[in-house]
User: What shape does this take?
Amino acid sequence: HLGAVSAPSTATRYITSSKSTTISWSAATNAVRYVVKKNGKVICRTTATSCTYKGVLGPKQRITLTAIGGNGSTATITVGQSSSRFGLLSRVTNFDIFGSKLDWKKRYQLNQIAKAIKAAGFTKIRLIGNTDDIGSSKVDRALSLARAKVVKAYLSSLLKGVTFTIDAAGRTNPIKSNAKVINRKYNRRVDIFAA
Assistant: This one.
């Protein structure tokens, strides 16, 4: 570890939850530790080849990775945003049973989500509609697609230059058990992913 350090050959960041981002990289030759910075401020010091930041890091945040060698030499690179790996940014829940309309609460939530998307600089959004298990699989799939479409229409009006894709999961991806009536509202939702 006494030779000059080389920069990692690859580094990326991706959202791992609505409250965290993972930054990962390839090992650098002769590196003994790494420092990750967000807009010039240290957010992680590690000897590993990844770290998790508590927060969402979008393309507008400048992330740098410095490899530090055993002899004190350094090599710094910019960490790009993953363009193919989508991470869960938020959820819009509690749609009416067999409904896809946006009430004022959902519109307010989507306004806040749009502000976060703009602030972070995300340009790719994936929307996945979901349902509880009240209807048939065919009805649930169509309903989950309708929910994703209404959220796309609303967000599209607020976010110019953002590419949206939509999908319908129907009842296949519950986040709470449908066995309890009180839980079903959480499954009547649209998941919002960003990259």
